[in-house]
Amino acid sequence: xxxxxxxxxxxxxxxxxxxxxxxxxxxxxxxxxxxxxxxxxxxxxxxxxxxxxxxxxxxxxxxxxxxxxxxxxxxxxxxxxxxxxxxxxxxxxxxxxxxxxxxxxx
Length: 106
Prior knowledge:
By secondary structure, the protein is mainly beta. The protein has 1 helix and 6 strands, in the order ββββββα. It has one helix spanning 96-104, and strands spanning 10-11, 27-32, 36-41, 50-55, 64-75, 82-93. A 6-stranded antiparallel beta sheet has the order 1-2-3-6-5-4.
């Protein structure tokens, strides 16, 4: 299968915070790029769902807030988890250049 990603990914294994009982409970990031984020979740999330995402790029920095859109959801073989691909549609707060710099530092 040909690689479709436009941006280099940075491996990123951190828990995701969301409302208790919501679709992001028991969700973890798997990778991050300047154009999107990969997630692993116990719950499938609807394709085309738009979600606000706050990216904490450093303890002393203001987070970057982006609007993401779920592009695909695939069950992970031999697992109860799902692999989810989210594309960043718009930077709502912060700087897109800061996000790009963060990903390039990998």
